[in-house]
């Protein structure tokens, strides 16, 4: 089956297309539903009025809708995706991001999109320093770009991506100058994947247990990796750290090795007959016994088993 994962391709990379704006709480819902009502909204002269933002923000909303893969570009133009419709339609599973699972899912959809969110893909899948300065991360990203990507990429623009990642995922020191409303409008900060260090320009992003990471989001991600790789088994180490420059679930969610294994074992218990773990040639591997499993089925289980608005 098809996968939403967009792996790293040297001649397909994107930097700076967000107009320097980080993702905000209301943008995905507002932009997605506006697009459903009018698929020409982002090229319309009335876009700024109808979306209630400036022109650069209109472009940024369009970018984030594509980076989170709830809209996709087809030969015939921009279109909604199945996952976009399932979650963000007016009667979708969680159009207003009231369930933290949706934030974890958005994070996964961005950091598994190497084509449009190249810096996010690199930071969460390939950059393994648990403590770093802004300059260390920025210089490491520039080195990665120079060694692995083709085409011309402005060093300044590439470095600036690190600042935006930190703004999206941590209470950066610059936020002290922002209004409380602006700080609260950055949804992925609540995942606590990046935190402030003890000194200026110092940050921490280390593996932890992540007990608030829903199992069904892990199930979705694991199934997506199987679909993208088109295999029936994957070494646990690959799921933790990825192939060379590949998607790494453990790293993307900043999980410890023990916690990833524990979540995989819980996944097997929840979905018997789909996944199992066996040792082959001395290597622990996760097997998928069915190759027709729909990734959305894991999310459906999560949202539709919830009480209230998710029932």
TrEMBL record:
It comes from the Bacteria. Residues 15-303 form the DUF4007 domain. This is DUF4007 family protein. It comes from Methylomarinum roseum.
């Amino acid at each position: 089956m098809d996968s939403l994962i967009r792996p790293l391709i040297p001649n397909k990379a994107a930097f700076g297309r967000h107009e320097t704006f980080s993702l905000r709480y209301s943008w995905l819902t507002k932009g997605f539903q506006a697009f459903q009502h009018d698929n020409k909204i982002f090229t319309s002269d009335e876009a700024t009025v109808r979306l209630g933002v400036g022109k650069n923000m209109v472009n940024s909303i369009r970018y984030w809708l594509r980076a989170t893969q709830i809209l996709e570009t087809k030969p015939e133009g921009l279109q909604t995706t199945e996952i976009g419709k399932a979650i963000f339609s007016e009667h979708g599973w969680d159009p207003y991001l009231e369930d933290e699972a949706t934030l974890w899912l958005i994070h996964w959809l961005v950091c598994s999109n190497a084509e449009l969110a190249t810096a996010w893909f690199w930071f969460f899948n390939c950059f393994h320093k648990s403590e770093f300065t802004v300059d260390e991360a920025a210089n490491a990203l520039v080195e990665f770009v120079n060694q692995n990507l083709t085409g011309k990429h402005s060093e300044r623009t590439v470095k600036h991506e690190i600042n935006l990642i930190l703004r999206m995922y941590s209470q950066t020191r610059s936020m002290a100058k922002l209004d409380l409303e602006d700080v609260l409008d950055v949804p992925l900060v609540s995942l606590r994947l990046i935190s402030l260090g003890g000194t200026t320009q110092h940050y921490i992003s280390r593996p932890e247990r992540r007990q608030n990471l829903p199992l069904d989001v892990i199930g979705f991600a694991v199934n997506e990796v199987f679909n993208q790789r088109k295999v029936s088994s994957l070494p646990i180490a690959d799921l933790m750290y990825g192939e060379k420059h590949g998607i790494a679930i453990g790293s993307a969610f900043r999980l410890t090795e023990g916690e990833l294994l524990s979540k995989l074992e819980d996944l097997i218990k929840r979905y018997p007959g789909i996944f199992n773990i066996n040792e082959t040639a001395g290597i622990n591997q996760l097997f998928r016994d069915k190759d027709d499993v729909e990734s959305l089925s894991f999310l459906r289980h999560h949202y539709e088993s919830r009480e209230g608005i998710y029932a």
